[in-house]
Amino acid sequence: MSPAGAEGVGVPEAVGVPGAGVPEAVGGAGAGVPEAVGVPEGVAVAAYERRLHPLTPLLRAWVPIAAVIGMLAQQGDRAEEWITELPVSLRFLVLVALLLVFGTYGLLSWWFTHYAVTATELRIRSGLLFRRTAHIRLDRIQAVDVTRPMLARLAGVAKLRIDVIGTDDKDELAYLAEKDAAALRAELLARAAGFAPAEAVALGEAPERALLRVGPRELVVSLLLSLGVLAAVTGGLLVPVAVWWFSASPWAAAAALLPLLGWAWSSSVGRFLTEYDWTVAESPDGLRLDHGLADRAHETVPPGRVQTVRIVEPLLWRWRGWVRVELAVAGSKNDVLVPVAARAAAYEVIARVLPGVDLAALSFSPAPGAGARWVVPVWWRGYGVAVSEDVFAARRGLLCRRTEIVPHAKVQSVRLTRGPWERLHGVADVHVDTGANGTVTARLRPAPEASALLYAQADRSRTSRATARPDRWMT
Amino acid sequence: MDMGTRGGTSRPDWVGLPGGLLRLRRLLLAFWAVLFAAVTGVVLGLTAGPAWAACGALWLAAAAWGWVLLGRNWRSWRYAERADDLLISRGVLWRAQTVVPYGRMQLVEVTSGPLERRFGLASVQLHTAAAATDAKIPGLVPGEAERLRDRLTELGEARSAGL
């Protein structure tokens, strides 16, 4: 079990109101060198505690502000009535009191939040009344993300998030000065890799080598060519018009329009914004992913953490030979490895994630037509399975073809299921469960083969663990 | 560590469930069937006439069918401890078979509800890092459940691996 991170950490949620929280602490955006508490900076051997960037309370203030505005908007007239009833002086007093309370709380919570890196863990202490300490074990790091939302970019700060299984949103360091975040990430990764603490600080950023970069034109064309996006956009425009036509009520149309527009937005423009300028680079401490237009994100996936790789080939992409690569890492939210790339380039990236796997050499055996065609008409042709020395791969889908690849070492359990209809036609499904809460299913295998596959897969996943990389990958 | 390494890696040595679970389930079935039959019979007898009261017997027929099904389902449950993994097989119409390597086990749970305790039953559930793993063995004798738990824990420790 990973003991880390089960108890979350939180920089307390309710933080300042604008302008109130950060009086003299704001010495300018660049003034965020974390203070050393106790031990002077530079002595890396002892774990010294540091604070977050002093702008933190201010940057986190938009959450309570949004909540208050939302509440007032919902109450509408009543809130207005209520406010106008108060005399002007009292109104002013309430405002000042609110600002003071939120501000002090935000400031205090910032003051009481410390983090420290020890030889084995990242420790985050926080909480004003309810003290909590999260111990995040470095050798269990699944991924490290540095994200810079729009506002934070303007202020020159960044969020650092360590993904360990069981961590939640609260286990992130928000906010740190950008260069501190980068330095901390480098240090964490070096220590996780097994370097000595002094060495880890001195090493700094590991060198990286760019593997792949997705240009904006390619990204736009790929989005235009994917049926899902087209469906979302046309649906988002046509359905409200149709609703208006039939119900003759513009309000119904507007009600239908909003969620659909949201969907169309997130699957087209939203995707463009997050996947803009997607760069994949390789470094000794893992694969680096940089992306985003407004909000920049920087993700690092250490070696050997990927549980599943999924290759998605939408129908219209196939004549251009493009693929999208998604990945599953336990405890991490990152799920895209390459938004769009030519097949050969994508395979090269996958080869870094799954070392020694030759995807081109995987030969998929199709589902047996005789039985499978009665269980899943037409679409049975899409199913296939391939097993190599290192991976288990299953394919499905006719229009949008998805290939899922699991290294044997990541398999947690193997299951075989057969319904009555499948049994009648002599086929069975084999499921392979992975730690990222995913299941890869090889559907519609001939019964004897499925049974053999079940046992063989259990054997393979058991033995392949012996040759897997150590958690501290540099040792 | 070779205690109970019965059967090679290739041939599983299947063990069925003890009779207690079947008895419990059949008793519950009989209880509810008789109750429903009585209620239906009385209500219909009073409202629609004594001839209609015979409809209550439908519940008994369903129960007889259920009696057979329960038996078949109970017989379908079996498990095998192999040298390196645990096998669980179950289901009559929807058959499922699960293989969990000992090294992947995160925790073993022994549970026993009030009714189960009354009948001297306990179930063992294995958890791996994958939520989809559904490795549960119901209706074991508590002694066997505890033995299994201890053995699985021991084997899990010996073969443990990270994610």
TrEMBL record, chain A:
<dbReference type="InterPro" id="IPR014529">
    <property type="entry name" value="UCP026631"/>
</dbReference>
<protein>
    <recommendedName>
        <fullName>YdbS-like PH domain-containing protein</fullName>
    </recommendedName>
</protein>
<feature type="transmembrane region" description="Helical">
    <location>
        <begin position="244"/>
        <end position="265"/>
    </location>
</feature>
<feature type="domain" description="YdbS-like PH">
    <location>
        <begin position="380"/>
        <end position="454"/>
    </location>
</feature>
<keyword id="KW-0472">Membrane</keyword>
<feature type="transmembrane region" description="Helical">
    <location>
        <begin position="219"/>
        <end position="238"/>
    </location>
</feature>
<keyword id="KW-0812">Transmembrane</keyword>
<feature type="domain" description="YdbS-like PH">
    <location>
        <begin position="110"/>
        <end position="187"/>
    </location>
</feature>
<feature type="transmembrane region" description="Helical">
    <location>
        <begin position="58"/>
        <end position="76"/>
    </location>
</feature>
<keyword id="KW-1133">Transmembrane helix</keyword>
<dbReference type="InterPro" id="IPR005182">
    <property type="entry name" value="YdbS-like_PH"/>
</dbReference>
<dbReference type="Pfam" id="PF03703">
    <property type="entry name" value="bPH_2"/>
</dbReference>
<feature type="domain" description="YdbS-like PH">
    <location>
        <begin position="281"/>
        <end position="349"/>
    </location>
</feature>
<feature type="transmembrane region" description="Helical">
    <location>
        <begin position="88"/>
        <end position="113"/>
    </location>
</feature>
